[in-house]
Amino acid sequence: MPNMTSLSTSQIAVEQKHISKQNIDGLENPSDKPAIKTLLSLPPIRRLPVETLSWIFILSVFSPDFDDRESCYKHPMVFRISHVCRQWRLISLQCPELWSKLCPDSVVGPWSISYTRALLERSKQFPLTIDIQPLEVNEHDSRYLRKAIRLALKHAERARVLHLDDHYGEKFAVQIVKRLSVISAPHLESFRFGLSERLDIKHPLFQGGGTPKLRHLGVRYHGLESLPPLPSQLVTLDLDRPHRTVSVSEMLSVLSKLPYLEIISLWACLQPDSPPVDNPVRFNHLTLVSIADAVSNCVAMMENLIPTHPIKISVKRLDWDAIPNWRPVGCLFERIGTRLNFRGEPGYLPLRTLSVKLTMPNRRVQGWVDVQCNPHRTNVSPYLDIGLSGIPGQHEEYTFRRRSNTWILRSCKLLQLFDVQVLYVSSKTFLPTDSWLNAFEGATQVHRLEIDEAGALVGFLKAILTPNEEYGQDKLFPALKTMFIREVDFEHKYRIGDGVSTTVGAALLDFLKKRASEGSRLELLWMEDCYHLPNGARLALLEHVDKAFWERYDVREVGSDPEEMDKFHGYSDEDSDSDQDWSDGWGEGLEGEDEWSDEGGGDGEDEARME
């Protein structure tokens, strides 16, 4: 019958005549027809066509949200599907693709061999997905596991996806390499190879015929010399700590032959002393770049990788030989990267919000630059988040060297933050005045400043209140209208000059007075999770700002105490210069390398300074 919505009013009456009374009665009484009655008695999913059910089964088995290794069952998903009923078993056995996913390490024990054999047989000649990940098992079960993996790799030539993320003993890794060295992989599209770090691969893999369809490549511990020539259609390249590093120019030469790359991830792949390079490579399809290396190498790579459209980027600074086992990046090995938009010129970011985090735990940390899609503190997107990431607990013996701050803030300078309007800075330890002025000199459109921790606030106030002949005082946030302060002790003392100290609260009042006298009075001051600012002192601040809030309450509603107000205005410098005021490491010049030389003092002394 034609679609009734496509008929005119006059045609509807004509169409209704073709529907007999008998047909209408049949539709109203389907129980009179045995076939319809049987169909209606079935659950809804059993009424679906065979092709639809097959696709549902395939999506269930290959879903990234489901992992047989994390399942509470002892049987792979495909076997559980095929044992629901006779109909589902017949459908599943007629679908070779459903049986083409092999995870030999998902089931441990004697049955792992039986499952692997069944999957290989029922998948017929359909290209395989072979995924082998690290797994700790006892010696008894490891025998069955190795046999199952060996059985799966006998069919490696059929592999469409081959992921080998770890090994089960040095000798077994050598056997895997020997097997992969002599075969061809005509169907291989995704190859991830991360066997033993001590494994020496003397001959390239896949010498039997190469990998003509390869699109996604991830290699850990081993370089490109262990692989056949890369096909030009490669989309993803992820190199993670290879034995043999190359110069920046050599890496750019390799990348220039891969015009379709969408993802580039390089971790400790470049030689430490690579000479400067001026060999830009343009990419029309690039979506993500992740680089973790020495600062000079990061800069050289980012200056020569030229995208033609907005991309995502993650840049991490590595200190050579400091923490050899820490892996902060890897596209195929873990999810990384967030949004970063380029306008066209390298190094220019049309951002609206900048976030700088310099929080430092009592262990060595590495610098990183990331861009977040959905900032949790503001409704402006995108925003740049620059900070220092912590190292897992096993590396707590390493202490932080604050010279990393210099690299972080130089990154801000290089980014040319012309369009930043919202700035978020967090630093528990003192953030020097020159660093503030040098890093954020170009952010002249900032109208909202969020500061967490006293170290960042002290550095900011000192940069504003201390005369500076090189930068002047009118170049730091002239458009500032709102200010958010969190986690600050306003009674804490800090040094503003030779023999002169003050408190954070008094310095904040001086800053507000200065802004008001210059005709750039703040519209809003928000203080949250802060300490030791009396009610009267808050009202004193309110004299120089339109609105002020303390712990989400309007300061006007808190009340005034004259004695507290006098105390706030009358701090004595004579009581502010004791050595105990500097136990947390605040003060002048803490970012210089001289204070962090290796001479004298051990890890315990460094940790005490950090506390």
Automatic annotation (TrEMBL):
It comes from the Eukaryota. Residues 562-611 are annotated as: Disordered. Residues 562-572 have a biased composition (Basic and acidic residues). Residues 573-582, 590-611 have a biased composition (Acidic residues). This is Uncharacterized protein. It comes from Jaapia argillacea MUCL 33604.
